[in-house]
Amino acid sequence: MTHSAINQSLADFIQASPTPFHATEQLAQRLVAAGYEHLDERTDWALKEGGRYLVTRNGSSLIAFSLGRPDQLHTGLRLVGAHTDSPCLKVKPQPELEQQGLWQLGVEVYGGALLAPWFDRDLSLAGRLTFRTGDGHLGSRLIDFKRPIATIPSLAIHLNRGANDGVAINAQTDLPPLLAHCHEPKRQLRDLLKQQLLDEHPDCQAEQVLDYELSFYDTQAPATLGLKGDFFSSARLDNLLSCHAGLTALLESDGAQPCVLVCTDHEEIGSSSACGADGPFLEDVLSRLLPDNAERIRALQHSVMVSADNAHAVHPNFADRHDGNHGPKLNAGPVIKINSNQRYATNSETAAFFRHLCDQAEVPVQSFVVRSDMGCGSTIGPITASRLGVRTVDIGVPTFAMHSIRELAGSQDAAYLIKVLTHYFNSAQLI
Predict the structure, then answer these.
(1) 71: left (phi over 0), alpha (psi -120 to 50) or beta
(2) A Gene Ontology molecular-function term (predicted)?
Protein backbone atom coordinates (compact mmCIF):
# COMPACT_ATOMS: atom_id res chain seq x y z
CA MET A 1 0.00 0.00 0.00
CA THR A 2 1.17 3.55 -0.73
CA HIS A 3 1.51 6.16 2.01
CA SER A 4 -1.65 7.89 0.81
CA ALA A 5 -3.62 4.63 0.76
CA ILE A 6 -2.43 3.78 4.27
CA ASN A 7 -3.35 7.23 5.55
CA GLN A 8 -6.80 7.00 3.98
CA SER A 9 -7.33 3.60 5.60
CA LEU A 10 -6.17 5.06 8.93
CA ALA A 11 -8.49 8.05 8.50
CA ASP A 12 -11.45 5.77 7.78
CA PHE A 13 -10.62 3.64 10.83
CA ILE A 14 -10.34 6.62 13.18
CA GLN A 15 -13.49 8.27 11.81
CA ALA A 16 -15.43 5.07 12.49
CA SER A 17 -13.93 4.69 15.98
CA PRO A 18 -15.06 7.56 18.22
CA THR A 19 -14.90 5.32 21.33
CA PRO A 20 -12.98 2.19 22.37
CA PHE A 21 -16.18 0.20 21.76
CA HIS A 22 -16.35 1.38 18.17
CA ALA A 23 -12.60 0.85 17.67
CA THR A 24 -12.89 -2.74 18.89
CA GLU A 25 -15.89 -3.31 16.62
CA GLN A 26 -13.93 -1.95 13.66
CA LEU A 27 -10.93 -4.14 14.43
CA ALA A 28 -13.16 -7.21 14.75
CA GLN A 29 -15.01 -6.49 11.50
CA ARG A 30 -11.79 -6.15 9.54
CA LEU A 31 -10.34 -9.32 11.04
CA VAL A 32 -13.50 -11.35 10.35
CA ALA A 33 -13.53 -10.05 6.76
CA ALA A 34 -9.96 -11.37 6.44
CA GLY A 35 -10.96 -14.84 7.64
CA TYR A 36 -10.38 -14.65 11.40
CA GLU A 37 -12.84 -16.60 13.55
CA HIS A 38 -14.54 -14.76 16.43
CA LEU A 39 -14.24 -16.75 19.68
CA ASP A 40 -16.36 -16.38 22.81
CA GLU A 41 -14.59 -16.54 26.18
CA ARG A 42 -17.69 -18.14 27.70
CA THR A 43 -17.44 -21.25 25.54
CA ASP A 44 -14.90 -24.00 24.90
CA TRP A 45 -12.37 -23.33 22.17
CA ALA A 46 -11.47 -25.91 19.55
CA LEU A 47 -8.40 -24.30 18.01
CA LYS A 48 -7.08 -25.71 14.76
CA GLU A 49 -3.48 -25.88 13.61
CA GLY A 50 -2.66 -22.75 11.68
CA GLY A 51 -5.95 -21.15 12.70
CA ARG A 52 -6.63 -17.42 12.95
CA TYR A 53 -8.84 -16.14 15.74
CA LEU A 54 -9.98 -13.09 17.67
CA VAL A 55 -11.60 -12.58 21.05
CA THR A 56 -13.01 -9.45 22.68
CA ARG A 57 -13.68 -8.50 26.28
CA ASN A 58 -16.06 -5.78 27.46
CA GLY A 59 -16.55 -4.84 23.83
CA SER A 60 -13.61 -2.44 24.22
CA SER A 61 -10.54 -4.72 24.13
CA LEU A 62 -9.46 -7.25 21.53
CA ILE A 63 -6.84 -9.93 21.10
CA ALA A 64 -6.25 -11.47 17.67
CA PHE A 65 -3.87 -14.35 17.07
CA SER A 66 -2.59 -16.35 14.15
CA LEU A 67 -1.16 -19.74 15.15
CA GLY A 68 1.24 -20.04 12.21
CA ARG A 69 2.68 -23.31 11.01
CA PRO A 70 1.99 -26.42 13.10
CA ASP A 71 4.02 -26.79 16.31
CA GLN A 72 5.39 -23.24 16.12
CA LEU A 73 3.98 -21.86 19.38
CA HIS A 74 6.87 -23.19 21.45
CA THR A 75 9.35 -21.19 19.32
CA GLY A 76 7.92 -17.92 20.62
CA LEU A 77 5.13 -15.46 19.96
CA ARG A 78 5.44 -12.20 18.08
CA LEU A 79 3.26 -9.88 20.17
CA VAL A 80 2.25 -6.32 19.34
CA GLY A 81 0.38 -4.31 21.98
CA ALA A 82 -1.56 -1.05 21.71
CA HIS A 83 -4.56 0.57 23.39
CA THR A 84 -8.02 1.53 22.19
CA ASP A 85 -8.79 4.43 24.55
CA SER A 86 -7.94 8.13 24.32
CA PRO A 87 -8.41 11.08 26.70
CA CYS A 88 -11.90 12.52 26.33
CA LEU A 89 -14.94 13.94 28.11
CA LYS A 90 -17.35 11.30 29.41
CA VAL A 91 -20.97 11.97 30.30
CA LYS A 92 -21.90 11.68 33.97
CA PRO A 93 -24.72 9.33 35.16
CA GLN A 94 -27.13 12.17 35.94
CA PRO A 95 -25.74 14.89 33.68
CA GLU A 96 -28.68 17.16 32.86
CA LEU A 97 -28.01 20.85 33.56
CA GLU A 98 -30.30 23.80 32.84
CA GLN A 99 -28.53 27.14 33.09
CA GLN A 100 -29.61 30.47 31.63
CA GLY A 101 -32.26 28.78 29.54
CA LEU A 102 -29.75 26.40 27.94
CA TRP A 103 -29.46 22.62 28.21
CA GLN A 104 -26.04 21.18 29.01
CA LEU A 105 -24.56 17.86 30.09
CA GLY A 106 -22.15 17.40 32.96
CA VAL A 107 -18.94 15.62 31.98
CA GLU A 108 -16.01 13.91 33.64
CA VAL A 109 -12.48 14.16 32.24
CA TYR A 110 -11.16 10.74 31.21
CA GLY A 111 -7.38 10.41 31.27
CA GLY A 112 -4.79 13.17 31.04
CA ALA A 113 -6.61 15.31 28.51
CA LEU A 114 -5.24 18.58 27.16
CA LEU A 115 -8.40 20.56 27.88
CA ALA A 116 -7.98 23.93 26.15
CA PRO A 117 -8.42 22.54 22.60
CA TRP A 118 -11.86 21.17 23.53
CA PHE A 119 -13.36 24.64 23.44
CA ASP A 120 -15.16 25.90 20.31
CA ARG A 121 -15.16 22.52 18.57
CA ASP A 122 -18.09 20.82 16.82
CA LEU A 123 -18.75 17.88 19.13
CA SER A 124 -20.76 14.72 18.74
CA LEU A 125 -21.60 11.90 21.14
CA ALA A 126 -21.02 8.15 20.93
CA GLY A 127 -20.76 5.09 23.13
CA ARG A 128 -22.55 2.04 24.47
CA LEU A 129 -26.13 1.85 25.76
CA THR A 130 -27.63 -0.91 27.89
CA PHE A 131 -31.42 -1.14 27.73
CA ARG A 132 -34.44 -3.23 28.67
CA THR A 133 -36.66 -4.64 25.95
CA GLY A 134 -40.42 -4.96 26.07
CA ASP A 135 -40.19 -8.60 27.15
CA GLY A 136 -37.86 -7.81 30.05
CA HIS A 137 -34.54 -8.81 28.53
CA LEU A 138 -31.36 -6.71 28.63
CA GLY A 139 -29.41 -5.71 25.56
CA SER A 140 -26.48 -3.49 24.64
CA ARG A 141 -25.77 -1.60 21.42
CA LEU A 142 -23.36 1.05 20.21
CA ILE A 143 -24.60 4.44 19.08
CA ASP A 144 -22.94 7.36 17.32
CA PHE A 145 -24.78 10.62 16.63
CA LYS A 146 -22.05 11.47 14.05
CA ARG A 147 -23.43 14.96 13.41
CA PRO A 148 -22.34 17.93 15.57
CA ILE A 149 -24.78 18.19 18.49
CA ALA A 150 -22.74 20.10 21.10
CA THR A 151 -20.03 22.65 21.73
CA ILE A 152 -18.14 24.20 24.66
CA PRO A 153 -18.02 27.94 23.95
CA SER A 154 -15.03 29.94 25.15
CA LEU A 155 -15.56 32.99 27.31
CA ALA A 156 -14.93 36.12 25.24
CA ILE A 157 -11.62 37.84 25.89
CA HIS A 158 -13.51 41.02 26.76
CA LEU A 159 -14.81 39.19 29.85
CA ASN A 160 -11.53 37.44 30.61
CA ARG A 161 -8.65 39.76 29.84
CA GLY A 162 -6.10 37.34 31.25
CA ALA A 163 -7.13 34.47 28.98
CA ASN A 164 -3.87 34.57 27.01
CA ASP A 165 -1.81 34.58 30.20
CA GLY A 166 -2.76 31.03 31.04
CA VAL A 167 -6.00 30.56 32.95
CA ALA A 168 -6.76 27.33 34.81
CA ILE A 169 -9.68 25.30 33.46
CA ASN A 170 -12.16 24.05 36.04
CA ALA A 171 -13.31 20.63 34.87
CA GLN A 172 -16.53 20.83 36.89
CA THR A 173 -17.78 24.28 35.88
CA ASP A 174 -16.03 25.18 32.60
CA LEU A 175 -16.53 22.04 30.52
CA PRO A 176 -20.24 21.08 30.37
CA PRO A 177 -21.08 21.11 26.63
CA LEU A 178 -24.03 23.11 25.34
CA LEU A 179 -26.62 21.09 23.38
CA ALA A 180 -29.88 23.05 23.09
CA HIS A 181 -32.35 25.53 24.55
CA CYS A 182 -34.37 24.30 27.49
CA HIS A 183 -38.02 23.48 26.94
CA GLU A 184 -40.91 22.05 28.92
CA PRO A 185 -41.17 19.29 29.88
CA LYS A 186 -37.54 19.12 30.92
CA ARG A 187 -35.21 17.29 28.57
CA GLN A 188 -33.97 13.89 29.70
CA LEU A 189 -30.83 12.44 28.17
CA ARG A 190 -32.15 8.88 28.29
CA ASP A 191 -35.12 9.84 26.11
CA LEU A 192 -32.74 11.32 23.55
CA LEU A 193 -30.58 8.20 23.70
CA LYS A 194 -33.56 5.87 23.28
CA GLN A 195 -34.57 7.68 20.10
CA GLN A 196 -31.04 7.52 18.73
CA LEU A 197 -30.83 3.84 19.63
CA LEU A 198 -34.05 3.05 17.75
CA ASP A 199 -32.90 5.13 14.79
CA GLU A 200 -29.65 3.19 14.52
CA HIS A 201 -30.99 -0.22 15.62
CA PRO A 202 -34.71 -0.37 14.78
CA ASP A 203 -34.82 -4.10 15.55
CA CYS A 204 -33.55 -3.85 19.13
CA GLN A 205 -37.03 -3.38 20.68
CA ALA A 206 -35.66 -1.05 23.35
CA GLU A 207 -38.22 0.06 25.91
CA GLN A 208 -35.98 1.88 28.40
CA VAL A 209 -32.31 2.92 28.43
CA LEU A 210 -30.98 1.80 31.80
CA ASP A 211 -27.39 2.97 31.59
CA TYR A 212 -24.67 4.16 29.23
CA GLU A 213 -20.98 4.86 28.67
CA LEU A 214 -20.82 7.93 26.42
CA SER A 215 -18.00 10.16 25.22
CA PHE A 216 -17.98 13.47 23.41
CA TYR A 217 -15.67 13.67 20.40
CA ASP A 218 -14.63 16.13 17.71
CA THR A 219 -16.45 15.66 14.40
CA GLN A 220 -13.67 17.16 12.27
CA ALA A 221 -12.43 14.45 9.91
CA PRO A 222 -8.76 13.39 9.77
CA ALA A 223 -6.71 15.22 7.16
CA THR A 224 -3.39 15.08 5.38
CA LEU A 225 -2.06 18.64 5.38
CA GLY A 226 0.97 20.83 4.72
CA LEU A 227 2.28 22.38 1.53
CA LYS A 228 3.60 19.00 0.41
CA GLY A 229 1.25 16.81 2.43
CA ASP A 230 3.86 16.19 5.11
CA PHE A 231 1.50 15.90 8.07
CA PHE A 232 -1.45 13.80 9.20
CA SER A 233 -3.87 15.44 11.62
CA SER A 234 -6.62 13.68 13.55
CA ALA A 235 -8.26 13.00 16.86
CA ARG A 236 -7.24 9.88 18.81
CA LEU A 237 -3.93 9.24 17.00
CA ASP A 238 -2.85 8.17 20.48
CA ASN A 239 -3.33 5.31 20.15
CA LEU A 240 -5.61 4.30 17.28
CA LEU A 241 -2.71 4.85 14.90
CA SER A 242 -0.86 1.97 16.59
CA CYS A 243 -3.99 -0.22 16.67
CA HIS A 244 -4.44 0.33 12.94
CA ALA A 245 -0.75 -0.31 12.24
CA GLY A 246 -0.77 -3.55 14.23
CA LEU A 247 -3.94 -4.71 12.51
CA THR A 248 -2.66 -3.87 9.03
CA ALA A 249 0.67 -5.56 9.67
CA LEU A 250 -1.06 -8.69 10.98
CA LEU A 251 -3.32 -8.89 7.92
CA GLU A 252 -0.39 -8.32 5.55
CA SER A 253 1.90 -10.87 7.26
CA ASP A 254 2.50 -14.25 5.64
CA GLY A 255 0.92 -16.21 8.53
CA ALA A 256 3.85 -18.57 8.93
CA GLN A 257 4.75 -17.49 12.47
CA PRO A 258 2.61 -17.39 15.63
CA CYS A 259 1.51 -13.76 16.01
CA VAL A 260 -0.63 -11.91 18.56
CA LEU A 261 -2.21 -8.44 18.37
CA VAL A 262 -3.34 -7.04 21.74
CA CYS A 263 -5.49 -3.87 21.79
CA THR A 264 -6.67 -3.13 25.32
CA ASP A 265 -8.79 -0.43 26.93
CA HIS A 266 -8.09 1.88 29.91
CA GLU A 267 -4.38 2.56 29.27
CA GLU A 268 -4.96 6.28 29.76
CA ILE A 269 -6.11 5.69 33.34
CA GLY A 270 -3.59 3.05 34.39
CA SER A 271 -4.84 -0.16 32.68
CA SER A 272 -6.21 -1.62 35.91
CA SER A 273 -9.45 -3.23 34.78
CA ALA A 274 -10.80 -6.57 33.66
CA CYS A 275 -10.06 -5.63 30.04
CA GLY A 276 -6.96 -3.47 30.60
CA ALA A 277 -3.32 -4.44 30.19
CA ASP A 278 -3.00 -4.72 33.98
CA GLY A 279 -5.92 -7.17 34.05
CA PRO A 280 -5.91 -10.88 33.23
CA PHE A 281 -7.21 -10.69 29.63
CA LEU A 282 -3.98 -11.54 27.79
CA GLU A 283 -2.95 -14.12 30.38
CA ASP A 284 -6.35 -15.80 30.12
CA VAL A 285 -6.06 -16.05 26.34
CA LEU A 286 -2.47 -17.34 26.46
CA SER A 287 -3.42 -19.96 29.05
CA ARG A 288 -5.97 -21.33 26.59
CA LEU A 289 -3.47 -21.28 23.74
CA LEU A 290 -0.84 -23.01 25.88
CA PRO A 291 -2.62 -24.79 28.77
CA ASP A 292 0.54 -26.38 30.15
CA ASN A 293 2.19 -23.89 32.54
CA ALA A 294 5.76 -24.98 31.89
CA GLU A 295 5.24 -24.96 28.13
CA ARG A 296 3.68 -21.48 28.32
CA ILE A 297 6.61 -20.11 30.32
CA ARG A 298 9.10 -21.58 27.86
CA ALA A 299 7.17 -20.08 24.93
CA LEU A 300 7.00 -16.65 26.57
CA GLN A 301 10.74 -16.71 27.23
CA HIS A 302 11.22 -17.18 23.48
CA SER A 303 8.73 -14.38 22.75
CA VAL A 304 8.96 -10.60 22.27
CA MET A 305 6.35 -7.92 22.91
CA VAL A 306 6.45 -4.73 20.82
CA SER A 307 4.48 -2.16 22.82
CA ALA A 308 3.38 0.44 20.26
CA ASP A 309 2.28 3.80 21.66
CA ASN A 310 2.94 7.27 20.26
CA ALA A 311 6.12 9.18 21.14
CA HIS A 312 6.78 12.90 21.63
CA ALA A 313 8.28 14.54 18.54
CA VAL A 314 10.51 17.55 19.19
CA HIS A 315 8.30 20.63 18.87
CA PRO A 316 10.02 23.48 16.96
CA ASN A 317 8.55 26.08 19.33
CA PHE A 318 9.43 24.14 22.48
CA ALA A 319 12.64 22.27 21.63
CA ASP A 320 13.98 22.97 25.12
CA ARG A 321 11.43 20.46 26.51
CA HIS A 322 13.54 17.65 25.00
CA ASP A 323 16.94 16.19 25.78
CA GLY A 324 19.20 17.73 23.16
CA ASN A 325 20.35 14.35 21.84
CA HIS A 326 16.92 12.72 21.84
CA GLY A 327 14.48 14.81 19.82
CA PRO A 328 12.48 12.54 17.49
CA LYS A 329 11.33 14.16 14.25
CA LEU A 330 8.18 13.66 12.19
CA ASN A 331 8.54 11.47 9.09
CA ALA A 332 11.82 10.01 10.37
CA GLY A 333 10.53 6.62 11.44
CA PRO A 334 9.34 4.94 14.64
CA VAL A 335 10.90 5.86 17.98
CA ILE A 336 12.44 3.49 20.52
CA LYS A 337 11.41 4.78 23.96
CA ILE A 338 13.87 4.31 26.81
CA ASN A 339 13.67 5.10 30.53
CA SER A 340 16.10 3.82 33.15
CA ASN A 341 13.34 3.82 35.78
CA GLN A 342 11.29 1.36 33.72
CA ARG A 343 8.53 3.73 32.74
CA TYR A 344 9.26 2.08 29.39
CA ALA A 345 10.16 -1.61 29.29
CA THR A 346 12.90 -1.33 26.66
CA ASN A 347 16.31 -2.77 27.48
CA SER A 348 19.50 -2.98 25.41
CA GLU A 349 18.59 -6.37 23.94
CA THR A 350 15.07 -5.43 22.87
CA ALA A 351 16.20 -2.03 21.57
CA ALA A 352 18.90 -3.71 19.51
CA PHE A 353 16.37 -6.24 18.24
CA PHE A 354 14.02 -3.49 17.06
CA ARG A 355 16.88 -1.56 15.45
CA HIS A 356 17.83 -4.76 13.64
CA LEU A 357 14.24 -5.20 12.43
CA CYS A 358 14.15 -1.62 11.14
CA ASP A 359 17.47 -2.11 9.34
CA GLN A 360 16.20 -5.28 7.70
CA ALA A 361 12.92 -3.61 6.70
CA GLU A 362 14.78 -0.48 5.47
CA VAL A 363 12.86 1.72 7.89
CA PRO A 364 14.53 4.66 9.70
CA VAL A 365 14.48 4.49 13.49
CA GLN A 366 14.90 7.05 16.29
CA SER A 367 15.33 7.15 20.07
CA PHE A 368 13.58 9.06 22.84
CA VAL A 369 14.68 9.67 26.41
CA VAL A 370 12.83 12.24 28.50
CA ARG A 371 14.80 15.14 29.98
CA SER A 372 16.33 14.13 33.31
CA ASP A 373 14.55 16.98 35.08
CA MET A 374 11.08 16.04 33.77
CA GLY A 375 8.67 13.26 34.60
CA CYS A 376 8.19 10.40 32.15
CA GLY A 377 4.91 8.93 30.93
CA SER A 378 4.39 5.22 30.61
CA THR A 379 2.67 2.61 28.45
CA ILE A 380 1.32 -0.92 28.53
CA GLY A 381 4.90 -2.14 27.97
CA PRO A 382 6.11 -2.28 31.60
CA ILE A 383 2.72 -3.65 32.72
CA THR A 384 2.76 -6.50 30.20
CA ALA A 385 6.42 -7.24 30.85
CA SER A 386 5.85 -7.48 34.61
CA ARG A 387 2.73 -9.64 34.29
CA LEU A 388 4.08 -12.07 31.68
CA GLY A 389 7.85 -11.89 32.09
CA VAL A 390 8.10 -11.32 28.34
CA ARG A 391 10.92 -9.29 26.79
CA THR A 392 9.47 -5.99 25.66
CA VAL A 393 10.43 -2.96 23.61
CA ASP A 394 8.45 0.29 23.78
CA ILE A 395 8.19 2.11 20.47
CA GLY A 396 5.86 4.54 18.75
CA VAL A 397 5.27 7.03 15.98
CA PRO A 398 6.41 10.60 16.83
CA THR A 399 3.57 13.09 17.25
CA PHE A 400 2.78 16.64 18.32
CA ALA A 401 -0.03 17.71 20.68
CA MET A 402 -0.38 14.33 22.37
CA HIS A 403 -3.63 14.11 24.38
CA SER A 404 -5.12 17.07 22.55
CA ILE A 405 -8.51 16.75 20.85
CA ARG A 406 -6.48 17.03 17.61
CA GLU A 407 -3.02 15.46 17.30
CA LEU A 408 -0.41 15.64 14.52
CA ALA A 409 1.86 12.98 13.03
CA GLY A 410 4.06 12.74 9.96
CA SER A 411 2.27 11.49 6.87
CA GLN A 412 4.97 8.84 6.23
CA ASP A 413 5.33 7.42 9.72
CA ALA A 414 2.25 5.18 9.81
CA ALA A 415 3.57 3.42 6.70
CA TYR A 416 7.01 3.06 8.30
CA LEU A 417 5.49 1.48 11.40
CA ILE A 418 3.35 -0.94 9.38
CA LYS A 419 6.37 -1.97 7.31
CA VAL A 420 8.56 -2.84 10.29
CA LEU A 421 5.72 -4.56 12.19
CA THR A 422 4.91 -6.69 9.13
CA HIS A 423 8.57 -7.69 8.91
CA TYR A 424 8.48 -8.50 12.64
CA PHE A 425 5.41 -10.73 12.27
CA ASN A 426 7.15 -12.54 9.41
CA SER A 427 10.49 -12.96 11.20
CA ALA A 428 11.54 -16.56 11.63
CA GLN A 429 14.00 -15.61 14.41
CA LEU A 430 13.49 -13.54 17.52
CA ILE A 431 16.12 -12.58 20.07
Answers:
(1) left
(2) aminopeptidase activity
